[in-house]
Amino acid sequence: MIAKRVFTGIAVGLILTAIGFYLYVEFLLKVALSQAVKTLSQQGNLGTVLFIAAIPNLLAFFIFINRGQDYKARGIIIASFIIAFLILIAQFL
Question: pTM here?
Answer without folding.
Answer: 0.88
